[in-house]
Design goal:
heterodimer, A: 114 residues, mainly beta, globular, B: mainly beta, 4-stranded antiparallel sheet
């Protein structure tokens, strides 16, 4: 079955440390892949997207993600965390067969320690 | 250029009442999607509409929920006889249908609380 999984519902890092949020998908055909950020009581903001061009995708706020077909992964990274990065992050996919329906992961809450 | 607009932003209803959530897509967009986010969960797809047509309603509960996107005016998500389990954030997204993956732009959401 086609699905998307985020490992770790809560990640805590120190300010200035590397941020790594994990996302794996399950599909025989690579889907379109997205990362969204949600601040408390707000809507979703698109961080970055993979649409079969370059496998390393750069997004806003210094985030980037690498598509690895062999690992069916699309992990989100940022070299140096900032306090303002504290938020909920959602990995999301659109599978070719789903007529544009976005499937979201369960989310990872990122906390930043001073 | 205004983004996707949703109103109201917050809605409180008592059990058994009706809730109407409105979504105005971005200018030039004729595709609308509704998603529901239950507390502490990710977003779940509910329904995909184009003007006057429901394209995919595979995520809609079988009873009490309906959606429309008329030729004129906003898209409406209607929940009849609300129950406490309907308390959630409801997000609308829109697209112009031209990109290969129908890039969707999200509104700020309507937070429904059922007392």
């Amino acid at each position: 079955a086609q699905s998307v999984t985020q490992l770790g519902s809560h990640v805590s890092v120190s300010e200035g440390a590397l941020v790594l949020l994990r996302c794996n998908y399950s599909s025989s055909v690579p889907p379109y892949l997205f990362w969204y950020v949600q601040y408390p009581n707000q809507g979703l903001q698109l961080l970055l997207k993979y649409t079969s061009a370059a496998t390393l995708v750069k997004g806003i706020n210094g985030f980037e993600a690498e598509f690895k077909k062999s690992e069916t992964s699309f992990h989100l990274t940022k070299p140096s965390a900032h306090m303002s990065d504290a938020a909920e992050y959602f990995c999301a996919v659109i599978f070719w067969s789903s007529a544009s329906k976005i499937i979201f992961g369960s989310g990872t809450r990122l906390s930043i320690r001073p | 250029n205004a983004g996707v607009m949703q109103n109201p932003r917050h809605l409180v209803r008592r059990r058994g009442q009706e809730a109407r959530l409105r979504c105005s897509p971005m200018k030039g967009h004729s595709h609308v999607y509704w998603y529901r986010q239950l507390p502490e969960e990710g977003l779940k797809f509910m329904v995909y509409l184009q003007k006057e047509n429901i394209i995919d309603e595979s995520g809609m509960p079988k009873e009490r929920f309906s959606a429309e996107f008329p030729k004129e005016g906003p898209s409406i998500l209607r929940i009849q006889q609300v129950v406490r389990g309907d308390s959630a954030a409801y997000f609308c997204a829109s697209s112009d249908g031209t990109s290969e993956y129908n890039e969707q732009f999200f509104g700020p959401g309507t937070r429904l609380t059922v007392l």
